[in-house]
Amino acid sequence: MAIEYKKSLAVFSDFVGVEEAENLLEWLLKNPKGKINLAECGHIHAANLQVLMAVKPQIVAGSKDENLQLWLGML
Fold it and tell me: Residue 19 gets which letter from DSSP?
């Protein structure tokens, strides 16, 4: 899995594809104070970006990828 879900933290890694979006949304709705770690994420599908934009969770670590950081700046 490209997203590892812990009690209050979702850790993204490598390539996060479209198939992750539904689980991400469910986890965020069940964990409204859940936080996001994108430090090891190199690519995120737009569906996941839309989930993050809609729910607006706290991002505790941004991606090292400059292009991804630009997209995430919209959050």
Answer: G
The amino acid sitting at 19 is E
* Residue range 9-56, pLDDT digits in tens: 999 999 999 999 999 999 999 999 999 999 999 899 999 999 999 999
Tell me which amino acid residue 20 is: E
Q: Other CB atoms closer than 10 Å to residue 1's CB: what's the count?
A: 10
CATH 3.30.750 fits 3-72, yes or no: yes
pLDDT tens digits for range 32-43: 999 999 999 989
Based on the number of CB atoms within 10 Å of its own CB, is 73 exposed (0-12), middle (13-18) or buried (19 or more)? exposed
| Other C-beta atoms lying within 10 Å of the C-beta of residue 21 | 20
Domain limits, the chain: 3-72
51 CB burial (10 A radius; 0-12, 13-18, 19+): buried
